[in-house]
Design brief:
The complex is a heterodimer. Helix content of chain A is 37%, strand content 12%. By secondary structure, chain A is α/β, with parallel strands linked by helices. Chain A has one domain (4-267, 271-298, 381-508): Alpha-Beta Complex (Amidase signature (AS) enzymes), CATH 3.90.1300.10. Chain B folds into three domains: 10-299, no CATH class; 330-414, no CATH class; 423-484, Arc Repressor Mutant, subunit A. Chain B is 39% helix and 20% strand. Chain B has helices at 51-54, 65-77, 173-189, 229-248, 294-299, 307-315, 321-328, 331-340, 346-366, 374-385, 391-404, 408-414, 423-436, 438-445, 452-463, 469-484, and strands spanning 16-27, 81-82, 85-86, 89-92, 102-105, 112-120, 126-138, 142-146, 149-153, 160-166, 202-212, 221-226, 256-261, 266-272, 282-283, 290-291. In chain B, the strands form four sheets. Chain B has a nine-stranded mixed sheet. Chain B has a three-stranded antiparallel sheet with strand order 5-4-15, with no helix packed on it. Chain B has a two-stranded antiparallel sheet with strand order 3-16. In chain B, a hairpin with a 5-residue loop joins strand 6 (112-120) and strand 7. The chains are: A alpha/beta, B alpha+beta. The A-B interface holds A 80-82, 88, 90, 95, 98, 100-102, 104, 201-206, 208-210, 236-240, 313-314, 316-317, 320-321, 323, 325-326, 338-339, 357, 360-363, 368, 372 and B 51, 54-58, 60-63, 90, 92, 94, 96, 99-102, 152, 278-283, 285-288. Chain B: Its EC number is 6.3.5.-. Chain B: Residues 335-480 form the Asn/Gln amidotransferase domain.
């Protein structure tokens, strides 16, 4: 079978289970695909040996009829999960040579179910960024238009791009303020972040501990549900993990009679394509028998400031371990000071550490403590909303993908990339992005769904209804069609105009 | 015993008063660390280290609940208010032996607050020292500076500590020492801390300020690196003298942290308070709040007898607190006392007490791992109380009964060791001695009267202390004086 990489995870899972394709052949093909897409710079490390070894084991199991839930399915892992004996860089020069001596809980769960690790995926350094531009290994690119060097979003940009471009059937990401959902929106795939505490953080490099949560990318909602069902679960090694048994996500549950909210006051000043897409989605929900009502939310800035106040503080604390004593190059004898590692951090990481130290200073009255207060107000507000509503629906990002080298006027401008996605992390809710249409440049746009904490099922049920109705064709299908029609790849995307940076800025306004 | 120290500074009489507060760090005696499964008892450097101690990316803390329980037990022993819900915070500072860059401690919500430790002063007056709080925290690693290089051992990193903070209620070095010893013995008795200072299982930082009666409190100076109670007293008294000397010269006290030097018994500047880093406290986002149910807290109340209470009980026999403490602070002596004391009248209890601080203490010191059967001790004390054996016999029987694990009553019976007051027997012995030592008798008769002691000694040898020595001496005297005339 050729071009097996185009299949969905569910499809390839069935083929594997039925013995119609061998995991070894599959892994071989996946590495060829990865090779052909190397210009996207999605992989920081390829774990070839491990992948073939796992494939052999999977083949044995399949032959013996002992196939596990994800037997033989090749996936990618964001490079902030520890995979034992593999390099784990968190896309930082500080950890460039770090070999993980232990396995993260989430990856262990996936390997236990037979998933195969193809490699470690590119990301923003320490997951700080929204464009994948802060990686010490150079940015990853969005397959939708390589010529324009489009950003796949961030921080899990490599994961999103790899899944969208067919280099793996699903990929692990992590989501602190939208790092799974925004890249999913930019790359036209599904991105899912469960409730805080659903997946163990054990073995994941910490950015902001009370926000960080494992997430997943897949090409459709069903694949997403399959992955999540094998990732969620209590882990005594993460004291914040939820001891309650996680739900088994079901793609066949109706949303008839469910009540959805949309923040009407956020519609002002948004790009017209984004609004149109949003309105379409609300209509899909009505068509599926749900009730849709407007609500008023506070101005984005309130959420965004709270988010940055708290996350930079936690980051400054979490990253204080990366001193020259244990990390960084031991060869650098020129600067024997033990905090010399600070030089190795990228600009954005340094900026956030300094902001965080400032927020945590005991003399700072408007610092971390104020952020904690604001956070509890936000939580209470949303818990009240969830007494009446099953989920809240709004756009995932204010725009389509932009060029990766897009220069923001100042750093806080770039933080506004996260305006829509930070709320679920502030309140611990599950959230996801579902591809639902295209923007003015013909690039994908995702719709953002969030529910009350620990109600992951309603998101999957809602996403399925949107997926059914939205007239969205993903990158691979578009690419595949192109191949079949005139063998001229990517020409379908020709409506992508060659806009300059300043034009992008205009669009933002 | 604690207060029989003559080092007390003389300046107390010149109107200067000292205000002292202690911060005691006591290692909780659990097998594994406060937040990881690494062992607390590894000797080889960096062998008791888990991914958390190394602060590897993705490592997370998991509370060792036993530490929480032992913290509560300790709080209860000092009558403290236990906070049903407590939480952990990060205290940030950079140091090579602290790989994570922060210590996990309880800044905002400690496990226990507001308690009392009763101590006594030199005159035997009881004084209450208030405890401000007990909180749990992790220890840092150890930096060893050698030949211009620094070696780091992380075995101590993550070791569970209780920080016990007093109010500034202590007025002298002796009170500080008394407080510390009571605290140490109490934690040992309830089995929450092994309390060995030399092994670093318990240590104290001392805050000292001086002022004149009626004046506002002086500037306080913190002294660190105090590794024994003796050094604690030295350090406090050195600070007392140093601060007074400065003030009398019209100089100011600098708010600083000073280090105690074990060789010179002096303290020296370590850092100014202004230099100390902003610890940037924040609630640890990796750890939830911990709530302990009331029933669990109640069940943690230790049934162990607290050293202070035992001391108080013994003192009621008319013994000084500082003497009673010898028994109270020693669990072996305490248990022996408590096991058998109720069999005796006040007189017998006093004999028991004197035996415990005398012969029994001495025996234990020399034979550390031998157990003493309380029934044997009871039998001996009974015989002593009724004057049936001499204290010399008692001592020998005591040792023999332990060595042979034999009931002392049997030993006494078999060897016919009961003390006798029979004149016939006494005379028999005296005659035997005089007959066996004719030369000495001749000399005595010639006026060498100090030979009386020799005859007495010989007689004692024969009787093995079985005869009442007073009676023996009286009769011997009588007999000799007859011969001399």
């Amino acid at each position: 079978m050729s071009e097996i990489w185009k299949l969905t995870l569910k499809e390839v899972k069935d083929l594997l289970h039925n013995g119609e394709v061998s995991p070894l052949t599959l892994v071989h093909e996946m590495f060829e695909r990865i090779e052909s897409q190397s210009h996207l710079n999605n992989f920081i490390t390829i774990t070839r040996e491990r992948a073939f070894k796992s494939a052999e084991e999977s083949w044995e199991r399949i032959k013996q009829g002992n196939a596990r839930a994800l037997e033989g399915i090749p996936i990618g892992v964001k490079d902030l999960y520890c995979v034992k004996n593999e390099r784990m860089t968190s896309a930082s020069n500080v950890l460039r040579d770090f070999i993980a001596p232990y396995e993260s809980h989430v990856t262990q769960k996936l390997w236990n179910q037979g998933a195969i690790c193809l490699g470690k995926l590119n990301m923003d350094e320490f997951a700080m960024g929204s464009s994948n531009n802060t990686s010490a290994f150079g940015p990853s690119f969005n397959p939708w238009n390589y010529d324009q060097k489009l950003s796949p979003g961030g921080s899990s940009g490599g994961s999103a791009s790899a899944v969208a471009s067919g280099s793996c059937f699903a990929a692990l990401g992590s989501d602190t303020g939208g790092s799974v959902r925004q890249p999913a929106s930019f790359c036209g795939i599904v991105g899912f972040k469960p409730s805080y505490g659903r997946c163990s953080r054990f073995g994941m490099t910490a950015y902001a501990s009370s926000f960080d949560q494992a997430g997943v990318f897949a090409r459709n909602v069903e694949d997403t549900a399959i992955m999540m069902n094998n990732m969620m679960g209590y882990d005594p090694k993460d004291s914040m993990s939820c001891s309650e048994k996680p739900p088994t996500l079901d793609i066949n549950k109706s949303i008839k009679g469910k009540v959805f909210a949309y923040p009407k006051n956020w519609m002002e000043n948004l790009d017209k394509h984004i609004i149109k897409n949003w309105e379409n989605c609300l209509q899909y929900l009505r068509d599926a028998g749900a009730i849709v009502k407007p609500i008023e939310l506070m101005d984005f800035d309130f959420y965004l400031s709270t988010y940055y106040l708290l996350t930079t503080s936690e980051a400054a604390s979490n990253l204080s371990r990366y001193t020259g004593v244990c990390y960084g190059s031991k060869k650098q004898e020129s600067n024997p000071k033990y905090n010399a590692t600070f030089e190795l951090f990228g600009k954005e990481v340094k900026r956030r550490i300094l902001m965080g130290v400032h927020s945590l200073s005991s003399k700072n009255e408007c610092g971390y403590k104020l952020g904690l207060k604001a956070r509890s107000i936000i939580k209470n507000d949303f818990m009240k909303i969830f007494e009446e509503f099953d989920a809240i629906v709004y756009p995932c990002s204010p725009r389509e993908a932009f060029p990766v080298n897009k220069v923001f006027e100042n750093p806080t401008e770039s933080y506004k990339e996260d305006v829509f996605t930070v709320i679920p992390n502030l309140i611990g809710s599950p959230a996801m992005s579902v591809p639902s249409g295209y923007g003015g440049n013909g690039l994908p746009i995702g719709i953002h769904l969030m529910s009350k904490p620990f109600d992951e099922q309603i998101l999957i049920s809602t996403a399925i209804e949107i997926e059914k109705r939205a007239n969205f064709v993903n990158y691979i299908k578009k690419f595949e069609n192109d191949m079949n029609e005139n063998n001229n790849s990517k020409s379908e995307n020709s409506n992508l105009s060659n806009k300059t940076d300043s034009q992008y800025k205009k669009d933002v306004k | 015993m604690i207060l029989d120290n003559k080092e007390n500074s003389t300046k107390t009489n010149q109107g200067w008063k000292m205000v002292i507060g202690l911060e005691v760090h006591a290692q909780i005696n659990t097998k594994s660390k406060l937040f990881s499964r690494a062992s607390t008892s590894c000797e080889k450097p960096n062998s008791g280290v888990d991914i958390l101690e190394l602060a590897l990316p993705g490592a997370l803390p998991v509370l060792n609940k036993e530490c929480l329980y032992k913290g509560i037990t300790s709080g209860l022993a000092f009558g403290m208010k236990i906070n049903e819900t407590s939480s952990f915070d990060r205290k940030h500072y950079f140091y090579p032996d602290l790989p994570s860059g922060y210590q996990i401690t309880q800044f905002y919500r400690p496990i226990a607050q507001d308690g009392i430790v009763k101590i006594w002063d030199a005159e035997g007056n009881i004084k209450e020292i208030r405890l401000n709080r007990i909180h749990l925290e992790t220890d840092a690693g150890k930096s060893i500076h050698k030949n211009g290089k620094t070696l780091i051992d992380l075995n101590r990193n993550g070791i569970p500590l209780m920080e016990i903070v007093t109010e500034p209620d202590i007025s002298t070095a002796e009170e500080a020492a008394c407080f510390f010893r009571i605290l140490q013995a109490t934690l040992k008795a309830i089995d929450t801390c092994d309390g060995n200072m030399e092994k670093g299982q318990i240590r104290a930082d001392v805050n000292v300020s001086v002022h004149k009666s009626g004046d506002p409190l002086g500037t306080r100076v913190e002294v660190k690196n105090i590794n024994s109670v003796r050094f604690m007293k030295k350090a406090i008294n050195y600070e007392f003298d140093r601060q007074i000397a400065l003030l009398e010269k019209g100089e100011k006290i600098n708010q600083e942290t000073r280090l105690f030097d074990e060789n010179t018994f002096k303290t020296s500047h370590m850092r100014d308070k202004e230099d100390s880093s902003d610890y940037r406290y924040m609630p640890d986002p990796d750890l939830p709040c911990f709530t302990v149910q009331k029933e669990v807290i109640n069940s943690l109340e230790s049934s162990a007898k607290l050293p202070y209470d035992i001391c108080d009980k013994i003192s009621k026999l008319g013994v000084k607190h500082s003497d009673a403490w010898t028994v109270a602070e020693n669990p072996v002596l305490t248990n022996l006392f408590l096991d058998i004391e109720e069999n005796f009248s006040t007189k017998g209890k006093k004999i028991l007490f004197n035996w415990l601080i005398g012969d029994v203490s001495a025996y234990i010191k020399e034979n550390q791992n031998t157990e003493i059967n309380p029934i044997y001790l009871k039998n001996i004390i009974e015989k002593l109380e009724s004057n049936s054996i001499s204290s010399k016999v008692a001592k020998e029987v005591f040792i023999e009964s332990i060595n042979k694990n034999k009931n002392p009553l049997e030993i006494i019976k078999e060897n016919n060791l009961e003390q006798t007051d029979s004149i016939e027997e006494v005379m028999k012995v005296i005659n035997q001695v005089l007959e066996e030592n004719p030369k000495e008798l001749e000399s005595y008769k010639k006026g060498k009267t100090n030979l009386e002691k020799f005859f007495l000694g010989q007689a004692m040898k024969i009787t093995k202390g079985r005869i009442n020595p007073v009676l023996l001496q009286t009769e011997l005297k009588k007999e000799l004086s007859k011969l001399a005339t």
